[in-house]
Design goal:
Distance between the termini: 17 Å
Radius of gyration: 17 Å
Mean pLDDT: 97
Number of strands: 11
Order of helices and strands: EHEEHEHEEEHEHHEEEHHH
Bound molecules: 3-hydroxy-5-(hydroxymethyl)-2-methylisonicotinaldehyde
Strand order of the largest sheet: 3-2-1-4-5-8-9-10-11
CATH architecture: 3-Layer(aba) Sandwich
Strand content: 15-25%
CATH topology: UDP-N-acetylmuramoyl-L-alanine:D-glutamate ligase
Helix content: 25-40%
Number of helices: 9
Number of domains: 1
CATH class: Alpha Beta
Largest sheet: 9 strands, mixed
């Protein structure tokens, strides 16, 4: 039997409002990958639009988690980090990457910190500098346009974008360190939206677009990142994985829009899993 791959997913767990671990765990597991989780915080909901959420910081557990995993000699085919709540957490996860990097595994960083031109309210204004340092250790990063601008210390620009601007961002981001970048929230006109991929070694840039659905849906970055990683670990290349992730995310948003649920509740990704598994050739 083929060896099963294993991921370490390092995100918070927001009890309600489908994002971070409540998205990463089901999607990556469904794709046949063993998913270990390192929860960085436990919240009652995510921070995007709910008042009064609880926030239990788990920073003190992260090093003991890593030490225990090291003592078990665990190996991961990928380490996937998302929402990290403080500079201290960034430092600890940076050490985790040092400890768990191997010659052939993948460190994927989603620099979750901003959207729609603004840093999330809970982060201090110098947080992007700390995130930039973490990104320097990644093999692949998956920022949205706002995060990309913050990582590069540039002002945020409203779309539609030009191809030359997107390519400027992609190339600037690989200068930070990662070999590959997948930039989300790219659009050249009002009708389509998607991702741009760049592989510094091959020099290849590709665009994967889909129909644009108006409105802002929460947790879509986590859905996108989880599907992208699951496809990469199922041996699809960067462009193919981005195509699968864009289609999965768009389909989830379309279903959410059709069922008219509160956009803060996250997207209806569960219904898309069967089609995703067919595309991965799993059924
Ligand atoms: O989806 C990104 C995310 C993850 N976790 C928490 C968040 C957010 C975005 O707001 O608040 C706690």
């Amino acid at each position: 039997m083929k060896r099963q791959k294993r991921v370490a997913a390092i995100h918070d767990i927001s009890g309600f409002g489908r994002c971070s671990l409540t998205v990463a765990l089901p999607i990556i597991s469904a794709a046949g990958i063993e998913t270990s989780v390192m929860p960085t915080a436990v919240l009652s909901t995510h921070t995007g639009g709910f008042e009064g959420f609880t926030y239990r910081d788990l920073t003190g557990d992260l090093l003991p988690f890593a030490e225990h995993w090291k003592s078990l000699n665990l190996k991961f085919d990928a380490v996937y980090s998302g929402f990290l709540g403080s500079f201290e957490q960034l430092d600890i996860i940076s050490g985790f990457f040092d400890d768990f990097k191997t010659d052939d595994n993948l460190i994927l960083v989603d620099p979750v910190m901003a959207d729609n031109g603004a840093l999330y309210k809970i982060f201090p204004s110098d947080f992007p500098l700390g995130m930039r340092k973490l990104c320097s250790k990644a093999d692949i990063i998956i920022p949205n346009i706002t995060e990309a601008a913050l990582l590069l210390g540039e002002p945020y620009l409203e779309g539609p974008y030009s191809e030359s601007y997107i390519e400027h961002l992609l190339k600037g981001l690989t200068e930070i360190g990662p070999e590959k970048v997948v930039l989300t929230g790219v659009f050249f006109d009002e009708k389509t939206l998607g991702a741009a991929t760049y592989d510094k070694v091959s020099g290849q840039i590709a665009y994967t677009f889909s129909d644009r659905i108006p409105g802002y849906y929460h947790g879509t970055g986590d859905v996108f990142g989880s599907v992208l990683l699951a496809a990469l670990l199922n041996d699809f290349n960067l462009e193919q994985s981005s195509r699968i992730a864009v289609d999965f995310t768009t389909d989830s948003i379309q279903r959410t829009a059709a069922s008219k649920t509160d956009i803060r509740f996250g997207v209806r990704f569960e219904d898309v899993i069967p089609d995703f598994l067919r595309r991965l050739g799993k059924c």
